[in-house]
């Protein structure tokens, strides 16, 4: 057993990570994220902004770095420019002279001129030679589009101790909500008996009829074993070359697949009461997860200095609040305001402003997620909104008070959030001038 000093909820400190030092993290970041609607018109889901200054992919990358992994590869495909630019700016500190590496691996028809990445497994297989050049003993394959804090060293330890062919990270979810996930059916020893993709009747945990195990899209393999499996899969014309659809079910049927409970390796500070994992794959889930950060004791602690979320930080001045007169007072209540923001005689309530947002006098924002460099003009009243980067909200615009009127102008979700993008505002201005 590898020597390991774990980080507890009650006390945190750095520790050695011997298995992580022999591992490579491979992040699958090519997803379209179509359920995020217009938020992914120009960017891949992993590149979507989160938490005031980060991108979604920063969580998987930070977990790898904080776990002690120093070899990282990121496979990109769909609308990858902003994602690649972000990683070049924010993740260029890993140094080859320290046996560290950070490879950005766009789909580039490296194996055949007939196709790009055909699936998540193919996105790894096409870069097998690059992986081999680093000779990692273990591969930690990660989805790049979830929000969570996790110590992969603990998952690596379980993989080695149980001599598994694959270890699959799983999060416990109510059986009533499990139909939207890939669900692991396990025995009393957490060996995976079957893998079911979005089952109508999800299997529950042994002895816990109300709880199911949902895959987090995180897998640990011995590298040599993974390369053999990928090679066989690439030769199978009937395969969709996907981990969840092809590789994992095959290993479950023919090898040893083991479930790793996220609760065993989730990283929590004193302020966090339970395991936190979110698939922010819809506008509603995205808005709620961002706004939850404004709570007095949020479920996700971004202030945890022992497990930082690394990212690219722009050089901007501090946030500024100006004017102090009745009806025109720059103030924010239960809100997060990033650097470079100016709240000029406006009121924010339970809102989150990303870098460089300006909110002008007499404006009122409530339950608002405002992406970088948006401009909110005077007297706007905005409630339950997600505003895309660089949008200029016109003077006096009211959103969140008339559902039918909102739905006619913007993208309104089931839970009543309005997504506002630049083309929507431009169409609105055109209709007004016409």
From TrEMBL:
Binding-site residues, alpha-D-glucose 1-phosphate: 117, 182, 197-198, 215
A GO biological process held by the record: glycogen biosynthetic process
Positions of the Nucleotidyl transferase domain: 26-294
Pfam families xref list: Hexapep_GlmU, NTP_transferase
GO molecular function, one term: ATP binding
Top-level EC class: transferase
PANTHER family (alphabetical): GLUCOSE-1-PHOSPHATE ADENYLYLTRANSFERASE (PTHR43523:SF2), GLUCOSE-1-PHOSPHATE ADENYLYLTRANSFERASE-RELATED (PTHR43523)
InterPro entries xref list: ADP-Glc_PPase, ADP_Glu_pyroP_CS, GlgC_bac, GlmU/GlgC-like_hexapep, NTP_transferase_dom, Nucleotide-diphossugar_trans, Trimer_LpxA-like_sf
Name of the coding gene: glgC
Subunit description: Homotetramer.
SUPFAM superfamilies: Nucleotide-diphospho-sugar transferases (SSF53448), Trimeric LpxA-like enzymes (SSF51161)
Domain of life, source organism: Bacteria
Entry EC number(s): 2.7.7.27
Residues at the site labelled Could play a key role in the communication between the regulatory and the substrate sites: 77, 116
Domain Glucose-1-phosphate adenylyltransferase/Bifunctional protein GlmU-like C-terminal hexapeptide as annotated: residue spans: 317-420
Pathway membership: Glycan biosynthesis; glycogen biosynthesis
Catalytic activity: alpha-D-glucose 1-phosphate + ATP + H(+) = ADP-alpha-D-glucose + diphosphate
Function in brief: Involved in the biosynthesis of ADP-glucose, a building block required for the elongation reactions to produce glycogen. Catalyzes the reaction between ATP and alpha-D-glucose 1-phosphate (G1P) to produce pyrophosphate and ADP-Glc.
Keywords from the UniProt entry: ATP-binding, Carbohydrate metabolism, Glycogen biosynthesis, Glycogen metabolism, Nucleotide-binding, Nucleotidyltransferase, Transferase
Protein name, entry field: Glucose-1-phosphate adenylyltransferase
Protein family per UniProt: Belongs to the bacterial/plant glucose-1-phosphate adenylyltransferase family.
